[in-house]
Amino acid sequence: MLAVLRLGHRVGRDVRITTHICLAARAMGADKVFLSGEKDESIIKSIGGVVKRWGGKFEVEYRKDWRSVMKSWKGKTVHLTMYGEPLNDRIGVLRKEKDLLVIVGAEKVPSEVYKNADFNVSVSGQPHSEVAALAVFLDRFFEGKELEKRFPKAKLRIVPQAHGKQIDANV
Amino acid sequence: MLAVLRLGHRVGRDVRITTHICLAARAMGADKVFLSGEKDESIIKSIGGVVKRWGGKFEVEYRKDWRSVMKSWKGKTVHLTMYGEPLNDRIGVLRKEKDLLVIVGAEKVPSEVYKNADFNVSVSGQPHSEVAALAVFLDRFFEGKELEKRFPKAKLRIVPQAHGKQIDANV
């Protein structure tokens, strides 16, 4: 089980970034996203629609109390932050974990997250994007195999093309 | 030279996603982003501020005529799209290119991009995020070494920590 905890969602301002986090998490092998911050049914609904059309078992769950998500998590927790230890140094150890909670924050992450996460890991020590950091983390964690994942019960499936588009419907 | 061409930016709606694209491009080793679509000085200014504080030579340039950016590019062009050929199959060939233009679209990409790009490559055939796709592409292209890149003339630099935050100012 690999889950993502998205902290500090703000309705309106963060809709697209949080949606990208959920979609990237699903596409790149995560099982679940816990959303925290302001409750936003629109995201849960839109990701539900993607799962229905594109298959797989991915789910999104809103949890007001993100502390309880961290506390009750059975495995290790890793917080992605530019202040953390380099991904290149830590990914080998993290890859051995069976149940991992990957925490991505919004603008201001409470200091207790830095303190209580088992690992704080940076995907470069430069300011960039929690979507980018999460995607690279997942690609490294699953060693690129996530890109070949088949999503069961898909109604739509891409047939890869050198040029142009092809979708199989009702596969 | 590795540059990114961002198609179809819309003022307001796309500000944060396009900003994340620029920041991820910079953090993960790209030299430049060409922005197209609606002109948006706020992004060019905010990324300029990041470069001033965090160093390096990265630049963002607005080009209304994205076709001319593609046409005049000296090296190969690769369009990231869920409809393309799998990254795992193509990254080996692409990694040999010295000058690469990586094209990322907004919602509706004109069919001539699919037709005229030298490569159309998918970072998973699932719907997700152009920020995520770009980040994974760059990490694969630079084989993870981009995460250790030093940015010359930085005023700020992170000192990696297992827990907590440390920034060196005026390094």
TrEMBL record, chains A, B:
Assembly description: Homodimer.
UniProt catalytic activity: cytidine(56) in tRNA + S-adenosyl-L-methionine = 2'-O-methylcytidine(56) in tRNA + S-adenosyl-L-homocysteine + H(+)
HAMAP family per UniProt: tRNA_methyltr_aTrm56 (MF_00077)
Lineage, broadest ranks: Archaea, Candidatus Micrarchaeota, Candidatus Fermentimicrarchaeales, Candidatus Fermentimicrarchaeaceae, Candidatus Fermentimicrarchaeum
A single Gene Ontology CC term: cytoplasm
Binding site for S-adenosyl-L-methionine: L80, G105, A106, E107, K108, V109
Name of protein: tRNA (cytidine(56)-2'-O)-methyltransferase
Enzyme nomenclature, EC number: 2.1.1.206
Species whose genome carries this gene: Fermentimicrarchaeum limneticum
Family indicated by similarity: Belongs to the aTrm56 family.
Annotated transmembrane regions: none
S-adenosyl-L-methionine is among the record's keywords: yes
